[in-house]
Amino acid sequence: MAVRPVPAGRAAGAGCAIVSRAFPALSAALVVALIAAVAVITGQPWLFPSLGPTVFLQTVTSEEQAARPWNTVAGHAVGAAAALIALFLCDAQTDPAALASGTLTVGRAAATAVAIGLTIAGQQLIRAQHPPAAATTMLLTLGALQLTPSTAAALIAGVALAAALGEIARRLHPKQRDLPATNR
């Protein structure tokens, strides 16, 4: 039985494939760990559920528009603003939090529906589609995050940190190196 040598290019390609597959998980874990560390050190809730899908987009589908910093920051800002508007339009801002109370009021249900529509319309209007921002919208309309100045500051800080760290991860992603400069 003859043994054939592996062509030089193929061995390097296998290593690149491993790095390309491992990079998203490792970089996502690092980005979330850094945000969590800053949150723990500052004592502020800068890490919240909708940042998970944001980091996923930035590290797994790094070539997509939705993974870019503009889409991340503007998308979450539109989602938060839509939630605020909808809660006041539906007079639901003082209704009990749906998940904590185990009860979904008509006001919170209506506010959630209105806010999701506003989020999508607003994101399309400014070309900042970022699906994870719809989760931010729902966290606010369902009462999981309270509408307070400290919550607003935490949202801004968490999203800004995710956008910055995610952009670093996005640009370091092996797929990004193969894209033309206009797609980065």
UniProtKB/TrEMBL annotation:
The keyword Membrane applies. Residues 23-173 form the HPP transmembrane region domain. The chain crosses the membrane at residues 28-48, 68-90, 97-120, 140-165. The keyword DNA-binding does not apply. InterPro entries: TM_HPP. Keywords: Membrane, Transmembrane, Transmembrane helix. It comes from the Bacteria. This is HPP family protein. It comes from Sphingomonas jeddahensis.
